[in-house]
Write a structure and sequence with these properties.
The complex is a heterodimer of chains A (about 290) and B (about 100). With about 290 residues, chain A is mainly alpha-helical. Chain A has one domain: Cytochrome Bc1 Complex, Chain D, domain 2. Chain A contains eleven helices and seven strands. Chain A has helices at about 1-25, 35-50, 65, 70-75, 85-95, 130-140, 155-165, 180-195, 205-210, 245-255, 265-275; strands spanning about 120-125, 130, 215, 220, 230-235, 240, 285-289. In chain A, the strands form three sheets. In chain A, strands 6-5-7 form a three-stranded mixed sheet. A two-stranded antiparallel ribbon of chain A has the order 1-2. A two-stranded antiparallel ribbon of chain A has the order 3-4. Chain B is mainly beta and about 100 residues long. Chain B has one domain: Sandwich (Immunoglobulin-like), CATH 2.60.40. Chain B contains no helices and seven strands. Chain B has strands at about 5-10, 15-20, 45-50, 55-60, 70-75, 85-90, 95-100. In chain B, strands 4-3-6-7 form a four-stranded antiparallel sheet, with no helix packed on it. Chain B has a three-stranded antiparallel sheet with strand order 1-2-5, with no helix packed on it. In chain B, a hairpin with a 4-residue loop joins strand 6 (about 85-90) and strand 7 (about 95-100). Chain B is elongated. The chains are: A mainly alpha (about 290), B mainly beta (about 100). The interface of A and B includes residues 79, 82 and 238 of A.
Chain lengths: ~290, ~100
């Protein structure tokens, strides 16, 4: 008796499946394939509709693009940018050769000048996303130097200098025709939209859904162009910080366990966010409240 | 090593607007590091701005002033191209001075 019931249910399922295949087959189903370019267009269009008064390039300035009072304060601060000292330190470090006589310039295209907008990129050799910060440390290791800590200090200063030489160059992130690159993009996208932590927030909760609104005293920056200003001098920190510092502190603010800096998910997230911001000019180093 | 002082002074007819940024840790002496050891006090005690041999601003600072302090003020007089001397001294006796040109 039970056997027959199972068999009956199984045959019913086969019939339903066959019907579904027949319907779909007739309508030429859209393949379930990643289309980053379509995502990017939709993403940029949605922010364009939300903030029609903001010129596209101005999204590089984060909260200042969407809040006039904050912009006023920022313009006052920028008469005397607080990242000035870090910029000096970064330039000196960048131009100082390693013990073996080589320097950072040897590790980058165009000697490392004006290349920030090409990072992060998908490295087809390693099959992973390579960030600017990660590439700096790999450069150091290849030349027999110790890697730098990722969140603060010299790493922030060096990336500040490299960003400064790339100002106004639009983000130019490419997703090569490689399934691993698309997988990295998908992983970053999933990370961005996944809710986590005790507050059950996703990145998108604040930076898409509530972008431009207040979170206590702060104005939430729109997700588009949000990485263009990094590294940043954040008044709240009282010092410079890299993208990793921002990602880990965002994670902690959502009351989730932060990932280690340069974790694969963080790199994929940076890849996704930068790709979504293609066309937004580099404005780093920046200042944020 | 570049100077720890950045100055921007702008003459506008009758007075001069001055802005300065000083790189200094300004440790108050009340903070502990990651290992629980007290970070000893290290902060600027006096800052002076001199123009034409005369002190136009003298400030006594202490542990309550934040890291990398910023100061903005204006004084009567001052002409384009004149030198403005900025000096700080901290509680460890360290000092730095810079001569800026009024723009």
């Amino acid at each position: 008796m039970p056997n027959r019931r199972i068999r009956a249910r199984a045959s019913l399922r086969v019939a339903v499946l066959a019907a579904a295949v027949a319907v779909l087959g007739g309508a030429a189903p859209a393949p379930d394939k990643t289309d980053p370019l379509a995502d990017q267009k939709a993403f940029q269009a949605s922010f364009g509709e939300r903030f029609p008064q903001v010129p596209f390039a101005d999204f590089a300035n984060g909260p200042y693009a969407v809040s006039a009072p904050m912009r006023k304060q920022w313009e006052d601060i920028m008469q005397f940018p607080p990242y000035d000292f870090a910029l000096d330190e970064g330039k000196t470090a960048f131009e100082t050769p390693f013990a073996n006589g080589k320097s950072y310039a040897d590790c980058f295209a165009n000697k490392g000048i004006g290349v920030r907008q090409d990072f992060p990129y998908f490295d087809t050799k390693t099959g992973e996303v390579a960030t600017l910060d990660g590439t700096i440390n790999r450069c150091r290791e290849a030349n027999g130097e110790k890697p730098l800590p990722y969140q603060v200090g010299l790493m922030a200063s060096i990336t500040a200098y490299m960003a400064e030489t790339s100002r106004d160059k639009p983000f130019d992130i490419k997703i090569p025709d490689d399934p691993r690159a698309r997988a990295a993009y998908e992983d970053g996208k999933e990370y961005f939209y996944t809710r986590r932590g005790q507050l059950n927030f996703s990145c998108a909760s604040c930076h898409v859904g509530a972008a431009g609104q207040r979170l206590r005293g702060d104005i939430l920056a729109p997700a588009i162009g949000i990485l263009a200003a990094f590294p940043i001098y954040r008044s709240d920190w009282g010092s410079m910080g890299t993208i990793d510092r921002r990602f880990t502190s965002c994670s902690a603010q959502m009351r989730s366990e932060p990932l280690p800096p340069q974790d694969k998910s963080y790199r994929d997230l940076e890849y996704f966010l930068s790709y979504m911001s293609n066309g937004v000019p580099i404005s780093g180093p920046g200042t944020r409240p | 090593m570049a100077s720890t002082i950045r100055v921007r002074a702008q003459a506008n007819g009758t007075s001069t607007d001055v802005q300065a940024l000083i790189q200094h840790p300004m440790d108050s002496g009340f903070v502990k590091d990651a290992n629980g050891a007290v970070i000893p006090p290290h902060h600027i005690e006096t800052v002076t701005f001199e123009y034409g041999g005369k002190v136009v601003l003298h400030a006594d600072w202490g542990p309550a002033v934040s890291k990398d302090p910023y100061v903005k003020f204006s004084f009567k007089g001052g002409a384009k191209g004149d030198p403005l001397v900025v000096t700080w001294v901290d509680n460890l006796g360290k000092t730095d001075t810079v001569t800026a040109k009024i723009a």
